[in-house]
Amino acid sequence: MPAVQVDGLFKVFGRHPEQAVARLREGASAAELRAEGSTAAVIDASFSAEPGEIFVVMGLSGSGKSTLIRMLNGLLPPTAGSVRIGDTDLTDLDPDGLRRLRQGHISMVFQHFALLPHRSVAENAAYALEVRGVDRRTRLAAAREALALVGLEGWVDHRPHELSGGMQQRVGLARALAAETDVLLMDEAFSALDPLIRREMQDQLLELQRRFGKTIVFITHDLNEAMRIGDRIAVMRDGRIVRTGTPGEILTDPGDEYVARFLADVDRARVFTASDVMTPLPVGATPAAATVAARTPLTELVNHVARSEEPLLVEDADGRVLGIVTRTAVLTALGGGAQDRSDDSAHLLEALDA
Asked: What pTM was computed for the model?
């Protein structure tokens, strides 16, 4: 069962929103609706996020991505469509049920931190547990443990204004971890940070994800960020999801010119991973001696294939064999050519080695 399931979701602001949805379903454009006094922020959006997946929604300002995430926890009611968290449909919940769902199953990390300035770092990290009714001693202990996970164990008694922007964002992340919810919603969580700090936060998020396996829906306008952290990505434009896939799938098949323009300056070597360029292990073949993780980037695979012509065995996080990566596959991906994974064209390797 998906951790988050979105089906046919619409959000229309303005006059007669239900009628506007009917018009959109009949083929009316968002521009036509604007002329009639309605704004279609999200149009017929559908996707699922699996347990333990980082699902990134990427789009420019005005694409509808932040409106979308606010419907995932009921901050905005959908005009039409459904949102399910686990086996619970948000549209069936009354206000009390919605509050219980948020407290027990969903945490949200905002771009501008949303910290309480008059409270200590520990009290901020414990706030979700306080709202839930957890006693002070227990919630502060959980907060300190979460703060240690994000490297802030020495700052528990400080006020937010004494911390840098990156440290404040870590408090927001610690608050989400302390709540021990199944789903994290992250709305432009790192976008206000300097590039170096942003990358450090991305690294920390990936490390925490390897440890805890949360389901994360991550909103960003930064394609490089989406490609770096996302297991799958949904690209939004003018309220619609126009492409969904893994970073490798989107890079090799953008789907339309709009997405292709986004990809023009992407470094393929930093996006493609072993799972994107692997082929099945031939029946009866002797497993390769060297192994790599499925998420190993192409930049690291280059170092492996430079040392040996033997294929590499690709494993998932549980050590299960997924396939093999050959030198040809790596070189083909670096060159940007289409790769036939069923026939690892040896003539290309001979030409490149000549």
From this structure: 0.83
